[in-house]
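General statements about sequence and structure are easier to judge against a single worked case. For one protein, we set the task of working out the structure tokens from the amino acid sequence alone. The sequence in question and its structure tokens are set out directly beneath this paragraph.
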Amino acid sequence: MALGYSKFGHGPHKVIALHGWFGDHTAYEPMRNALSAGEFTYVFPAYRGYGLSRHLTGSYTNKEIAADVIALADELKWDTFSLIGHSMGGKAIQRVLADSPKRVKKLVAVTPVPAAAVPMDDATWGLFSRAARDMEARQGIMAFAVGNRLSKTWIDHMARYSAQTSTVEAFDAYLRAWAKEEFVADVRGKDVPVKVIVGEHDASITSDVMRSTFLAWYPNGELEVMPNAGHYPMDEAPVALATSIEAFLRK
């Protein structure tokens, strides 16, 4: 059961880009006009229960995502590759690294969830738990994630698109995967180059959180705060994000 995916570019540097909880294989499409097709080959998979993989069921864990990503790389005959991960995908790429460290060249973690469990009070957990079936909860989470500063039309579109392209079962289960799973011991001290990018308007995934997690765990980590962006820089600042990612991958 191979994951569904889209592909862009034909360059020698192979990159697998993983989406977030509200995303799917189309999450990085706003960046495409700024990506260097001759230097990189990008593959954008959808997790089980999402997008082009909506028909696939499973356990919906980070271990399963990692196994599916490695199986996809095998199918593509990619021995090594770099990884991009947004939000929940930022946690999943660390699981790929933990499980197949010799195959991963670099990590780019975009407003990422750390490899630790995410602390939430009861009210916050209740809001996120309702989101699988409650459109207003999705809209509220989206608005907060970008600093309550962007178009309601865009917020509504993002919330509704996420509901249309994922199953309730998968969306609900992946919340537990990114919020509850803990595997810091499996990644601490890995010397792979890591770039962490956060948005200046993201109230949850902040530079302070990244310094106490990613930069504390990865000795070759670096941090960038992206202006005019919240939790979704691929939508809010697509050209700047693509430029930053590729500059790091070229090093």
Q: What stands out?
A: Strands lie at 5-9, 13-18, 40-45, 81-86, 104-110, 194-199, 221-226. The mean pLDDT is 98.
